[in-house]
Amino acid sequence: YYLDPNEVARRIMRIISLHDNVKNPESMTSIHNGGNWVLTFFLINLGINELDYVEIMIGIENDFRIEISD
Q1: pTM here?
Q2: Which phi and psi angles does 65 have, rounded to 5°?
Q3: Which partner from 36, 53, 54, 56 sits 20 to 30 angstroms from 20, CA to CA?
């Protein structure tokens, strides 16, 4: 069972952009690469710290119902 990569990119962008401390969600961009969308962003451009990053990763785990190892 695999998810559509375009849907994955959209869901991850939504999770990140909805986080309270993301100051610059428009810095996230999508690049069309061989039929798939690729997310490009730098965490520093989003204005988040390490704790925010962990919260976003937990949000991704919850949304996709997966566990990302440390």
Answers
A1: 0.77
A2: 55, 50
A3: 36
User: What pLDDT is stored for residue 37 in this prediction?
Assistant: 61
How many Å apart are CA 23 and CA 46, to the nearest integer?
A: 6
**Stretches in the chain below the pLDDT threshold 70:** 1, 30-43
Q: Which residue reads 């690469």 in tokens?
A: 33
DSSP-derived 3-state class of residue 12: helix
C-alpha dist (Å) from residue 56 to 32, 33, 63: 24, 25, 10
pLDDT at 13: 86
SS3 label, residue 7: helix
Assess contact for 32 and 43: CB atoms under 8 A.
no
